[in-house]
Write a structure and sequence with these properties.
The complex is a heterodimer of chains A (787) and B (237).
Chain A lengths: L2 H12 L1 H38 L5 E9 H8 L4 E7 L1 E6 L8 E8 L11 E5 L9 E5 H6 L7 E6 L2 E12 L19 E7 H8 L4 E9 L5 H12 L8 E2 L4 H42 L1 H9 L4 H41 L11 H28 L2 H5 L11 H4 L8 H12 L1 H39 L4 E10 L2 H6 L4 E16 L2 E10 L8 E3 L3 E3 L6 E4 H7 L6 E6 L6 E10 L7 E4 H7 L5 E9 L4 H9 L4 E6 H56 L3 H37 L13 H27 L3 H6 L3
Parallel strand pairs in A: 4-9, 6-8, 14-20, 17-19
Antiparallel strand pairs in A: 1-10, 1-11, 2-10, 3-4, 5-8, 6-9, 7-8, 12-21, 12-22, 13-14, 13-18, 13-21, 15-16, 17-20, 18-19
Helix pairs in contact in A: 1-9, 2-7, 2-9, 2-10, 2-19, 7-10, 7-14, 7-19, 9-10, 13-20, 14-19, 14-20, 14-21, 19-20, 19-21, 20-21
Chain B lengths: L4 E14 L2 E14 L3 E5 L6 H8 L7 E6 L2 E2 L5 H11 E4 L11 H9 L8 H7 L15 H13 L5 E5 L7 H18 L2 E6 L10 E6 L2 E7 L13
Parallel strand pairs in B: 3-8, 3-9, 6-7, 7-8
Antiparallel strand pairs in B: 1-2, 1-4, 4-5, 9-10
Helix pairs in contact in B: 3-4, 3-5, 4-5, 5-6
The chains are: A alpha+beta (787), B alpha/beta (237).
């Protein structure tokens, strides 16, 4: 090892605390980048490979019923490459051992061979044998959530008839990477099942021989999507076609795409915050080192070492920090990436998971880490080159202090001498003071940013959701039922109250803009189901006209009082012009509401029930469940309490780990900033402080001078961090597709409190570490040394 | 005495700013250094002697004038050329030793021998200054005189053509100062290294072949010593 190398090694050992704390912050950045980017790449890679090899369709369309010739006609539309017609029906699964009936969906597959589109990946077992009318392939998410295995029986109510089927295969489908039926806010793998059966069997059960009610299309490369959608709509209009949906709006893919975009944004913002703080820390520490060692640098120059050699010497120190941070960050990143992909893996299912930690990602991440650290050190290293050797041999001019602003305002007398010294120190280096405060604020902001989506969702689930849903149970029907079903339900022993919701699928149009959604018909004086605007204000549909989610109104460009074109996508398929009578601020989706009586009258329909809300005597819940399972019209039953419980089960573990990671990150930043600042302040002012001790100041008094500035940074950093964190969270919330979610940006008081405590405790720990050195200040030695 | 010129300075002027003040450190200095001679530069503090030494050693550049090293012009050389000049030909000894505190005596010398072309062994150089026993001590474990002798060893280990010493005894007591001067004088005598010693301490001039006195940035007198040089251990101040 060269002698300069020896110097480096010893220098590093001397400032090991600083090197370690900076390396920790940098490691957090590297960890965050590896974790988020590799999860992103893994999900994206798995998705792309899956979609390609299992022929995920480009266009999806629902219809009432059409003869198979229509499917052949769809294939003639220019741009359409493959047409896969199917029969898709909703079914109820009264699973033994599960108290409530479960909603299921049967999708037909060809009697022989693989489906031309949306092919199944068989995880276990086989496809149903030709001619077997009781064999079924089950979606893996449900099978694993309910611990169902091959060969087990499965009761299914198919078209009103209870049948006992056998599970012969467990499969994944690109259509159900995330298993969502479209009725729920959170995917609940225990409560929704997709079943695949041979077409002949499904057709016989639903009298759909020679017909289909669902179609998926694959386009030729370069085909015009809007043109195809329009042509499909035209071709299916006569057959009760709901509007065709492009892949981008397909439920599972839409959720996956949203998740990917969230990950990508996070993978950009979070590491940038960490790396920014790390660069700042490298900057102050290397600057200080270069300043302290300027006579040594001058000597090295006098001895004939060139600027480049000396510069590289200090950059080697930076390289070591990056090296340390990389090892730690990559290890932590790889571990947390696996943890994160596992969490995603429980809900987003792919046949194979793309390898997460690629060498190229590691190289990229370390490269970014080096860039951040070098950027931090560059200014200081440049100063080495600018330092004329002869000048550096002279003692530095005394530092220039000024009266602080408070003193100039005449408030100096209010401050004691210690506070005055603190104020003057801050005034002398306001930029460093601000940057340090900003650094601490960043740690707090990262914590808030990582927590806000959980907090917001938690707030919705525990505060808003129970207020909106005061029913004990929600009963969904396979098809909408006559109003009489309500009294039928009310006659079930234990049911105290049944309230009807009517859900009508519609396309809302305003000039050239449109959205597919539903109008929900609500009773005039709801007892169980309530609408809350902004999560707070009870809102009811007006006597006449529609109540729209405000985001929907904004997207369509309509205001209260405007008429809007409504295509009714069922029954007589008419188009009506209906007035917009009010707006409601909701967190999820785009909906329309109306009074049920007005809706029925407007549509010239009798009153029907799509969903029934029940208020029950909880003591008799088991009896009610048995009764509901026996009703053939029932598709599925969910309870408010179960939704909240499912949500808790889903998020509980990951929330804890996420909070832990965020807490450690915030602490790493706070300690990194406070500790390094304290060390530097100590090295810059040890002479002054020792002089004060000689003059008779106590240890406590000189500590308060040194640590006062750091305390001020922490105390100012906390509210600043709250502001920045809340602002970034708001910006981040706004970057999520507003058509899916509009987070109410609720940040829990406990989040603010936790992060403030983390910052304070970290500051305190750093202060104690430095205080030890302060207590052992060498009074005589410090005064004797030339620098 | 040899008459080969090693370094020559012509009409050196150096101005620099200190805050709002313009300071003229040198006002037209002419000086020639010859092979093997020991020169003492005398002058009060602020007389410009350190500035002159720094310019001769390639640590600083003059505002106007010309410096030649063995016929090669140094004025106008860029930073890289000056670095090479210092590395190959000049050894420095400073008032405050300026050892690297994190390196031992041997390592401080090795710092130079690593980048020099035909250096001594670090141990040999330290032997030369009488520190053969303290090779692995850190600067903080050495007395001021010992530290200064390490600095001398570091300066001579590369076998420089010119040894420039800026107040080498300035921070030392009399006894220690004499030992350091003896070391420098012996090196000048035994290795024939052209040596310049800056001091404000007039009695030291007695060990020189030539004494140049500066005041207010100008040379006010230059005396060639007659007869035998005084040995450092005969000095009294």
């Amino acid at each position: 090892m060269s002698v300069l190398g020896t110097k480096l090694r010893r220098d590093l050992w001397r400032i090991k605390g600083q090197v370690t704390t900076i390396a920790l912050v940098l490691a957090c950045g590297i960890m965050a980048m590896i974790m988020l980017r590799s999860t992103f790449r893994s999900l994206q890679g798995s998705r792309d490979a899956y979609y390609a090899s299992y022929r995920f369709a480009d266009v999806f369309a629902r219809l009432e019923r059409a003869p198979l010739e229509v499917a052949a006609r769809l294939a003639e539309i220019p741009g359409v490459a493959v047409v896969s017609s199917r029969i898709v029906e909703e079914v109820m699964v009264p699973l033994p051992g599960e108290p409530d009936p479960i909603a299921g969906r049967i999708v037909s597959i060809p009697d022989r061979g693989a489906p031309p589109l949306n092919d199944l990946y068989l995880r276990a077992g086989r496809l149903p044998a030709e001619g077997a009318d009781d064999e079924v392939v089950m979606l893996e998410q449900f099978a694993s959530a309910q611990h169902l295995a091959l060969g087990e029986g499965l009761p299914v109510v198919i078209n009103g008839r209870l049948r006992e089927l056998a599970i012969v295969g467990i499969a994944l489908s690109p259509e159900y990477v995330l298993a969502m039926s479209g009725r729920e806010m959170v995917a609940d793998n225990r409560r929704f099942v997709v079943l695949w059966m041979p077409r002949a069997v499904v057709a016989a059960a639903y009298r759909m021989e020679g017909a289909f009610n669902d179609v998926a299309l694959r386009l030729e490369p370069g085909a015009s999507l809007p043109a195809v959608l329009e042509a499909v709509d035209a071709a299916l209009a006569r057959f009760g076609g709901r509007h065709a949906v492009p892949r981008a709006k397909q439920l599972s893919n839409y959720a996956l795409t949203n998740e990917l975009s969230v990950l990508r944004t996070l993978a950009l913002v979070l590491p940038a915050m960490f790396l920014g703080v790390a660069a700042f820390l490298v900057n102050i520490v290397v600057s200080r080192l270069v300043f302290l060692e300027r006579t040594q640098i001058a000597v090295l120059k006098a001895l004939g070492f060139g600027d480049r050699r000396i510069g590289l010497h200090y950059l080697a120190l930076v390289a070591l920090i990056v090296g340390l941070a990389s090892v730690l960050g990559i290890a932590l990143g790889a571990w947390s990436a696996r943890w994160m992909t596992d969490i995603y893996g429980a809900f987003y299912r792919f046949p194979t998971r793309a390898h997460a930690l690629s060498p190229s990602l590691v190289v990229l991440t370390v490269g970014v880490g080096i860039a951040a650290a070098v950027a931090g050190a560059l200014g200081a290293v440049r100063r080495i080159a600018r330092m004329p050797p002869a000048e550096a041999m002279r003692p530095p001019a005394p530092l220039a202090y000024r009266r602080s602003l408070l003193e100039r305002l005449g408030l100096g007398r209010l401050l004691g001498p210690s506070a005055m010294m603190v104020m003057r120190e801050i005034t002398r280096r306001p930029v460093r003071f601000l940057m340090s405060t900003l650094g601490i604020a960043m740690g707090i902001a990262i914590f808030i940013m990582g927590r806000f989506s959980l907090d917001s969702f938690d707030y919705l689930m525990t505060h808003v959701f129970p207020r909106e849903h005061q029913e004990d149970m929600t009963v969904a029907f396979v098809r909408s039922q006559p109003a009489g079903v309500l009294s039928e339900l009310e006659h079930v022993p234990g049911v105290q109250l049944a309230e009807a919701h009517r859900v009508v699928p519609v396309r809302l149009r305003m000039a050239t803009r449109w959205r597919d959604t539903t109008i929900t018909g609500l009773p005039e004086h709801p007892v169980l189901g309530h609408l809350l605007s902004g999560g707070r204000t009870p809102t009811a549909p007006p006597e006449r006209g529609l109540l729209l989610t405000d985001k929907l109104a904004e997207l369509l460009g309509v205001r209260v009082g405007d008429p809007i074109d409504v295509d009714i996508l069922e029954g007589d398929w008419q188009t009506r012009s209906l007035p917009v009578a009010g707006l409601i601020d909701e967190a999820f989706g785009l909906q329309a509401y109306a009074r049920a009586d007005w809706l029925a009258a407007t549509l010239h329909q009798e009153r029907r029930v799509s969903v029934a809300l029940l208020g029950i005597d909880v003591a008799r819940i088991d009896e009610i469940r048995v009764a509901l399972k026996a009703m053939p019209a029932v598709l599925g039953v969910t309870s408010t309490e179960r939704v909240i419980r499912a949500y808790r089960a889903q998020t509980g573990g990951s929330m804890l780990v996420m909070t832990l990671i965020l807490s450690l990150s915030a602490a790493a930043i706070a300690i990194g900033v406070v500790y390094n600042n304290a060390r530097i302040a100590l090295s810059m002012r040890s002479r002054d402080l020792a002089s004060l001790r000689v003059l008779g100041f106590t240890r406590g008094e000189i500590s308060s001078i040194l640590l006062g500035e750091l305390g001020a940074q922490v105390v100012l950093g906390i509210p600043l961090g709250f502001l920045i964190g809340t602002w970034i969270a708001g910006w981040f919330a706004a970057s999520i597709d507003p058509e899916a979610y509009r987070f109410p940006l609720h940040i829990a008081t406990s989040t603010y409190a936790t992060t403030a405590v983390i910052a304070l405790v970290s500051g305190l720990i750093s202060a104690l570490l430095v205080r030890r050195d302060l207590d052992h200040l060498d009074l005589v030695g410090v005064l004797k040394a030339s620098e | 005495m040899a008459v080969v010129s090693v370094l020559s300075a012509r009409a050196l002027v150096k101005r620099y700013r200190m805050g709002d003040l313009e300071v003229v450190a040198l006002r037209g200095v002419d000086l020639e250094l010859f092979e093997g001679e020991l020169i003492v530069l005398l002058g009060a503090s602020g007389s410009g002697k350190s500035t002159l030494l720094n310019i001769l050693g390639g640590l600083d550049v003059c505002t106007s004038g010309q410096v030649d090293y063995r016929g090669t012009e140094l004025t106008g050389a860029d930073e890289d050329e000056l670095t090479q000049y210092r590395r190959r030909h000049v050894g420095f000894v400073f008032q405050f030793y300026n050892l690297l505190p994190s390196l031992t005596a041997r390592e401080n010398v090795a710092l130079v021998t690593e980048i020099a072309e035909d250096p001594m062994d670090p141990a040999e150089a330290l032997e030369l200054v009488g520190l053969g026993e303290r090779l692995d001590h850190f600067p903080s474990q050495l007395s001021g005189g010992e530290q200064q002798r390490v600095a001398v060893a570091r300066a001579v280990a590369k076998r420089p053509d010119v040894l420039l010493c800026d107040e080498p005894t300035g921070a030392l007591d009399f006894q220690t100062g004499v030992r350091v001067l003896s070391t420098i004088e012996r090196i000048n005598r035994e290795l024939g290294t052209t040596t310049v010693i800056i001091t404000h301490n007039a009695p030291i001039a007695a060990i020189a072949n030539r004494v140049v006195t500066l005041a207010d940035g100008q040379i006010v007198s230059a005396k060639v010593a007659e007869g035998r040089r005084t040995r450092p251990d005969e000095l009294r101040w």
